[in-house]
Prior knowledge:
By secondary structure, the protein is mainly α. It is built from 41 helices and four strands. Strand 3 and strand 4 form a beta hairpin.
Amino acid sequence: MPAEPLLVAAALLPFLGSVAAALLPRDARNAAALLAGFVTLASLACVGALSPRVGAAPVVQTIDWLPSLGVAFTLRLDGLAWLFAVLVLAIGALVVLYARYYMSARDPVPRLFSFFLAFVGAMLGIVLAGNLIQLVVFWELTSVFSFLLIGYWYDNRAARDGARMALTITAFGGLCLLVGMVLVGRIVGSYDLAVVLASGDAIRTSPLYLPALVLVLAAALTKSAQFPFHIWLPRAMAAPTPISAYLHSATMVKAGIFLMIRFWPVLAETDAWYWIVGTAGMATMLVGAWSAIFQHDLKGLLAYSTISHLGLITLLLGLNSPLAVVAAIFHTVNHATFKASLFMAAGIIDHETGTRDMRRLSGLWRAMPYTATLAMVAAAAMAGVPLLNGFLSKEMFLSEAVDNVGDHPLQLALPVLATVASAFTVLYSLRFIRQTFFGAPPHDLPKAPHEPERWMRLPIEILVLACISVGLVPNLTIGPALETASRAVFGEAGPAYDLAIWHGFNAPLALSMGALAGGVGLYLAFGRRINTNPRGGPWLLHRLDGGWMFERAMTGLVHAARWLERSLGATRVQVQLRTLFLVALIAGLSAVLARGLPPMSVPDLSGIDPAFALLWLVGGACAVGAAERAKYHRLSAVILTGGAGLVGSLTFVWLSAPDLAVTQLLVEIVTTVLLLLGLRWLPKRDAAIPAPAAEHRRARRRRFTDFAVAGAVGTGLATLAYAVMTRPAPEGIARWFIDEAYPQAGGRNVVNVLLVDFRAFDTMGEICVLGIVGLTVFALLRRFRPAADSLERPKQQLRQEAADRAHEDRSVGDTAADAMLIPGVVITWLFPFICVLALHLFLRGHDWPGGGFAAGIALTIAFVLQYMAHGAQWVEERLRIQPIAWIGFGLLVAVLAGAVPWLFGRPFLTAAFQYADVPVLGKIPLASAVAFDLGVVVLVVGASVLMLVALARQSLRRAREAAAEMETEACMETKR
Length: 976
């Protein structure tokens, strides 16, 4: 089977599985686990099947994304990407099995697996990215999905705070990565990863090297929790333990490590790289190890140990030694295996005893011998005990520390600091084992400790077996994969290394034995004091509370933003518009003063049709009248505004632009109705209300200022428009669109072809904005409470009710019902005809005036008329309107219509058309852009109807509130 389909399947399956898991019922724990397990194993099988092919050359699948910018969607699997992909998927499959038994049946487990699979897909996107911009996109997706995973138990404040901190810090790094990748692409002249990796000399000698390096490293260090950005990782422990085991062993924190390894050939081997990366790694390794010693929470100890080991890997990458890079890759794999197993063991202890506090745990060996044995082996691997995988990579680390001694004091101290950090690792590993599994039998635990279910322990057994296997026979287990990954980084000129268990008596072995002995000695000397430390935080560093500093920084940013808002902002929209127009006016005048105003001829008015001039006079009068009536006579102002819009529509008809005319007319109808519905709930204004004289003077000054600004801006725009329209039009692309609309898109309506084919990206953005606006209006109006003076019923309604009460044979509301009887019947019968009209506009839009947007607005008018004639309650009892679902479905259809061309190797939103013989109709053209246009129709209807529903339900809410008030008054009268 060709390699490319397997690669695409491996990258796509997690996202498809995420969507499927999200559709499962809340209580479908088994189904969600089976789905997640199948997806991860299937992707792992696809990646595993490609292992024989990645040794010789990378497997590459390219799909054009933004070809005009040189950006393509490229999946690239080489030895390094293969190793990380296997790590992500293999540990992901084990975490799925573990989570099935860890999570409670009361939890919405399908939601957890949906977020989990999406995160797996984002991580695979990073390691398989063959394009710099694509890498940034998936990088940010990992931040988003990790935020959702950490905050899964959103009713827990610690989870919410941890998720917010993680997203803030890592998203900041993502923005830095975007700018850094743009700079790298600018230096190289391409965003293709293969081209970038072959341009190391050009990048390192470029003047943009240092800023690009700092930005890329900012992303890597924030994602991998390096000092001083490490503060987010311990607080991410509020996530469920399966998620902690996954995020902090094989995935999220390893994304930064992968980034530094991937770009090591082009960014490393400079002094800047050495000091930035090496210093950050050394500080993180020491701070993390020191902090882990004093933690009482099992997950807290493992979190800080993760920070320390990530610092160790980063330090290795900063040594500018190819052999150190191999050691970093090796330790990345080893750390993933023993740390995932330790997190799972900590989760089992918490699950079966009800606590993770080591001060309450002791003697669990008696109740949980199998779990204790597995956890002790994993902790020994973390400590670097011989014959386990951690010992081998630690030996390579200490060897590199000895070999990279230099003249600088920090270089001289490197072996000593490395040994001290290793001793600290032994100390907290020994404390983990001794305090949890040995000592007196536990008492006063929330649960009686016992072994977990067999399948819950199986993932730990597999990982511990990997620790032992790699430690005993490294050349047979990890050797081939490590060699392939090394070749992917260095090519054929990679460093020589030996994974033998025994290298004789040498300096690294002496340092390693010294670290083991030192760690044991430190525990014997200080273990009791550490275990009874009431703070649960590190000595000397307990005052440096990262959470407090983060909150202070965020509070400072909020205060600064509010100060800027108070200083430069305004609460009145009128002031904001005045400022905006003044800035535009000053910018225009500056250009005129700098370059001068070009000569303009006197306009020739003899060719103007008097009817057209009269039409524009009417439109201008409507606009001026709307401005004059807006303050105290809003209804007439809205009607006059609609008149000005109608004149604009007729103008398009006059100038032979029927497509624009139809759209303008339909939009005017809907917006006018929505504005009229909104006027009902605005505070009343009356010129008869007395106001102080000073207020009148301020109002006159304000109106005079606004009139002057409006006149100046209007004059400037008119002058600019006249100057542009009286000059020869430059040679543009309009003629190309006219000539190519039918040959390339199969449509004769150039305007619609532009919207759904040539400029479909613009339309995609516009419908997204429209959907967001609809949702925003709905959310705001749900919490909107009208002013007290607007809650009174209109005078016309009061007169009608009075007339009904005056006649004994009539009920309240009969007069209003009689008045709307005939219009209601007519409007009800019009509903199917307007739907047919909308369908007609949609189907003809590719060749004749119409299209998706016009069809969507026309269909919206059908709903608007029903609400106007019968009211919200009557309509919603008969029509199941779900506008939010319409918005989502429309956007989904539009995205899928754009994504289908990828299956044929074409760019996103590439359209195709073909003639088809249809019975009765004959030979007709069919364009795939119609599917995209269908998404536009559905979303436009959903967004417009959602705003209509939000406004219409204000009346229902007021009726319910009035009924509640009447019931309350009746109860009070009864009590009296």
